[in-house]
Amino acid sequence: MAAFILMQGDYVWLDLKTGREFDVPVGAVVKLCDSGQIQVLDDEGREHWIFPQNATNIKPMHPTSIHGVEDMIRLGDLNEAGILRNLFIRYNEHVIYTYTGSILVAVNPYQLLPIYTPDHIRLYTNRKIGEMPPHIFAIADNCYFNMQRNNKDQCCIISGESGAGKTESTKLILQFLAAISGQHSWIEQQVLEATPILEAFGNAKTIRNDNSSRFGKYIDIHFNKRGAIEGAKIEQYLLEKSRVCRQAPDERNYHIFYCMLKGMGPEMKAKLGLGLARDYSYLTLGNCTECDGRNDLADYSSILSAMKVLMFSDTENLEISKLLAAILHLGNLRFEARTYDNLDACVVVRSPDLLTAASLMEVEAKDVMVCLTTRTLITRGESVTTPLSVEQGLDVRDAFVKGIYGRLFVWIVDKINAAIYRPPTCESSAIRRSIGLLDIFGFENFFVNSFEQLCINFANENLQQFFVQHVFKLEQQEYNLEDINWQHIEFTDNQDALDMIANKPMNIISLIDEESKFPKGTDATMLYKLNSQHKLNTNYIPPKNCYETQFGIQHFAGVVHYESRGFLEKNRDSLHTDIIQLVHSSRNKFIKQIFQADVAMGAETRKRSPTLSSQFKRSLEMLMRTLSVCQPFFVRCVKPNEFKKPMLFDRELCIRQLRYSGMMETIRIRRAGYPIRYSFAEFVDRYRVLMPGIKPSHKQEDLKGTCQQIVSARLGKQEDWQIGKTKIFLKDLHDMQLEIERDKAITDKVILIQKSVRGLKARTNFLRLRSSVVFIQKVWRGYRSRKNYQIMRSGFIRLQAVCRSRKYYRSYRITRRRITLIQARCRGFLVRQTFWRRLRAVLTIQAYTRGMIARRLCQRLRAELQRRLDAERQRLAEEEQLRNQMTVRRAKAQAERKHQERLYLLARQQEERDREEKEEARRKKELLEQMEREKEQPVDHSDMVDRMFGFLGDSGPLPNQDGQAPAGFEDLEQAPRGEEPDEMSNDAPPLPDEEEEDLSEYKFSKFAATYFQGLSTHTYIRRPLKQPLLFHEDEGDQLAALAVWITVLRFMGDLSEPKCQVVLNDGSEKIPVMTKIYETLGRRTTYKRELQELQVEEEKRNSVRHKLVSLTLKRKSKITEEVRKAAGIITIVAFPLQMCTKHRRCSANLDKTHFCNCSVSVK
């Protein structure tokens, strides 16, 4: 019959009836149905040929199951096969999220999908469930906005098996909440950075998951009234400390060890004595040191940066690394068996690991050996030391290592909480709200299950009961109390198993605790008590015989068998007195800090410290109380396969997870139930905006009728909604529809308010603008009037000024004519007075001159007369003498002849004097003319220097004997050369001969090579220096040295003279020369600018002509007329050298010489 109904391309359910527990019908498509047999191709790609007589195992498929739906309560095939195929189809399309009402089902893709970008965060912000495709961001968004809308704390419970993706889902929700809180503050970054640290110290690679959380955590994120994150708090549950000491095959230790060995620098590793991961026993027990999906080097950098963000100091990071390194070194210790006094004993083989571990913990190596090989028992006040066997020594070592790591992890969590937790103030405590994220270990069932698995599965039983209670129990109980039309739905309840484990008297946890407190309690006695108490319970599976050490428990997810060996030791979780004393003797403050509570309890540690199971039970009870006061959201994570491979869907594994999680019952109750419920007052206050004219709830008398009126008007009377005694019950679809209409109505009202407010604002702005315009007009008009008034006033003032100027001009002209007349009269008077004064002076000069000429003529005539009289007397005397010798006539003639001769001689002498006077007058005239001509000629500096310093001559062989002495000083050189002064004979006797000192080493070239700066040598250069020859610290000394060198260049004629401006009669001749030199040397900016100009000028002088000119010493400079006159006066009348200071700069070589001498004396 089915062959005639089915057609090619139809989708059907194919029940293969294999008989396996988790086998369900599989979806298939009909390929061929007209050949007597039916050929179908199932979802896994296998072909099946079915005979028509066996077609009873084929059933038609509902259209909703063909391509899948986003919300599984809409499935037409409401069975396990329909749920499984819906997840399978979406998983193959890389769609991993599916709704079950408000519950999210997430299938681990084992690959990174591009659906977590900032665009997706913006896309899912402020959206209700159902508006967008299913996503983890939608759950986070509804948590956040329900917290703000209902003003109630929220929680998100993420459950699933190990490897199902719970940790990643938690991180994604954290990322979304940090993004939409809108503040992007430092605290948000700190909350996000806590995850890498917790994962490094609390996660490890297992056979089921590369990043399995080996502890549980509840992150409580606190928000202020604006919805911004203001803090968080992390609670940790049951760290798997045994993983530090042992791992199953293909598993690793905690991530931090491998990250530290990969990412730590060589210097730090050498300081801690670390090597490679394969060198340590604690890291190689699982024969796996690498993880393909992780980059330990990059993760270590992320861990360090996260620690900096969370305020871990460098000292704390170093102490953490030292303890981790000490754990690795302790794991490499080897024990050898010994026998002392017929007692089994052991010793620790000395090795570098022992010394390194002791130095890192800052204890003595011998104390570590004693602590690990002996045990001290205190009996009646006396201490007894007993040796330990090798097995006991290994247990003590492992217990010590687990104690260090466990307490280090607790300290790290407390350190993170100290950074991110903000205690509520009195004002904010009432308005602070929170969202809790629970990421706890999933249900575990290994080949060998121990005490840790019992605690983990106990926690999952509590979470399952919380889920059952909220989804099934409380919901159906509320339906019955409200007396609405409802058919009860059966569901699987795990309360009996939970009572057996922890709730009822004599439960498993209490029996384990009781046996742990007995000093002689063993794992065998504990197992005996469990069998005796619970062997009749259907959820307890006792051992098959008395030799087995395993017992089983029927959990909600299946039967798990636990190995009882080691239960009590793990439950006690105590450290021996020797270990506490070893920690107390340590010089390391950090290890004392993390063991502070144990050290305080001292020797009574075993008796006082609570057991691990009691601590864990108390933590779970507090967690359940916290979750019970929050509005929960559930995320069910599903693991698609055991091989951690993408795009591989294990049907039996998935259906097992769906079955024990109660997904079928969840879909049924979500489909038939009413997950949205409001009290009448809440419904009226929230949705009265949909009906105009409805008053608030506190003003209503018939709230139930008002609610019915609103819901009938908006949803219709035929829709599946119900009204109870105090509440109204709605579907998710109805709530979304009402919320959309409410948002629309509120938006319309907001637009109306905005329109009115904007109109008011616009009118207010218009009035303000109009008043401003009127005020501006008033001010402008006043300004224009004042401006016109000023123009008119200035015009009248100008007119007054013109009139007054004309009046004053006329008065001025009259006064000017009068003054001109007075000036003419005065000038005439002064000219006449000057003329007469000069006339009198000329007449006086003429009189004196004529008198002088007359007197000179008189004197000459008198001298002539006197000479003639003398000659006449001499003639008479001679004539008188000759008369005695000859006749009178002859005597007279002879005397007359001699007299004539003397007169002739006197005439000749007079002529000679006249000629000499004329010659002297001519010479003076020529000298004056020559002086006039020299004034017109330029001054030759070289000739002047030669004339003034020519007497120096060339250097002689002896010192102080250079050249010929100047005129007037020749007598100083004419001392007799052959004569020795008398004082030479009185010299002291000669001193004894001494070694002659070689003066050839003291050369100027060596001095220059040693002390001159830069590339300067001992040779003379004809250009300005860029830096002084010798080093000067003061900038003024440097400029002075450069100025002296410029002066030397000008003196030598290798640098042109600057243009001088002659300043006459300014009183500068009264200023001392040294004062002017100091002022000149002090002009730093002037010399600096002059040096720069000279350097630029020097660079331009690169032609052959400039080079030739720079070689000569005789260069003539054109100077002003006043300077030439001054130079002429100096040359002729030997005017003092101080006259050169009248000019601003010396222009002659003589002036330069004087300036150089003055400069050298200053230096």
TrEMBL record:
Residues 1020-1163 form the MyTH4 domain. It is found in: Cytoplasm. InterPro entries: Actin_motor_Myosin (IPR051724), IQ_motif_EF-hand-BS (IPR000048), Kinesin_motor_dom_sf (IPR036961), Myosin_head_motor_dom-like (IPR001609), Myosin_VII_N (IPR057130), MYSc_Myo7 (IPR036106), MyTH4_dom (IPR000857), MyTH4_dom_sf (IPR038185). Keywords: Actin-binding, ATP-binding, Coiled coil, Cytoplasm, Motor protein, Myosin, Nucleotide-binding. Pfam families: IQ, Myosin_head, Myosin_VII_N. The keyword rRNA processing does not apply. Residues 975-998 are annotated as: Disordered. Residues 67-743 form the Myosin motor domain. One of its GO terms (cellular component) is myosin complex. Its main location: cytoplasm. Residues 620-642 are annotated as: Actin-binding. Residues 855-937 form a coiled coil. ATP binds at residues 160-167. It comes from the Eukaryota. The keyword Cytoplasm applies. GO terms for molecular function: actin binding; ATP binding; cytoskeletal motor activity. Belongs to the TRAFAC class myosin-kinesin ATPase superfamily. Myosin family. This is Myosin VIIA. It comes from Fundulus heteroclitus.
